Amino acid sequence: MYLCTMAKILKIYPNNPQENLINEVIKTLNNGGLIIYPSDTIYALGCNIFDIKAMEKLAQLKKTKLEKSQFSIICNDLSHLSDFTRPIDTSVFRFLKSHLPGPFTFILDANKSLPLAYRGHKTIGIRVPDHPIPQLIVEKLGHPIASTSIKDDDEIIEYSTDPELIAEKYDHLVDIVIDSGYGDNVASTIVDLTSGEPEIIRQGKGII
Question: Domain YrdC-like, which positions (predicted)?
Fold first, then answer.
């Protein structure tokens, strides 16, 4: 298992995110670090989508092989769609625009210019969280990040909501934990749009 030094806890709140702390997160991502960040649903693990070693660490943390992983791509708006997906119909784009930002993961057909860690994937999951912190991180970083939810399979509550407990659990496994207060314990709704019509794969917080 990948181990790093003790995770740094940064208290960053949505109503007034401090620029110097966001910049520290960006520096960590650019240096191949792993972060835990808040979203409009649950807390999640993230890393630089273009750093293959960081992506491998993320896969290792989730106990999966990178080529078999299904990490979502976190964007701050829909302008990055063409970087990762095949051209989409106007009706599908309108549908996306009417539901994003929001608590959804949309599965779309992937194009052939995906980042190295996603090569060979025929579909890709796109998220645009309705939360200023991940939006700001992606904006400042200049490109999307890879993401996967923090799940507690052994507990009654499926997803971890307390950032202090999350920091304790992942102390030597990630570089930064962003403490933004208690998170939600309902994940995003996963919607497959590859057929052109929305098909709900997992019902979560988002309502179609």
Answer: 19-206
- The CATH number linked to 34 is 3.90.870.10
pLDDT tens, position by position, 53-95 = 999 999 999 989 998 899 999 999 999 899 999 999 999 999 9
Measure the CA–CA gap between 48 and 43, rounded to whole angstroms: 17
Structure tokens at 113: 């210019």
For 93-150, what is each residue's pLDDT tens digit?
999 999 999 999 999 999 999 999 998 899 999 999 999 999 999 999 999 999 998 8
**Structural domain contains residue 208:** no
Residues of the domain holding 58? 8-202
Q: In this structure, is residue 3 part of a structural domain?
A: no
Q: How many domains does the chain have?
A: 1
Q: What is the pTM of this model?
A: 0.93
Name the residue with tokens 């078999």.
Answer: 68
Is residue 41 packed enough to be buried (19+ CB in 10 Å), middle (13-18) or exposed (0-12)?
Answer: buried
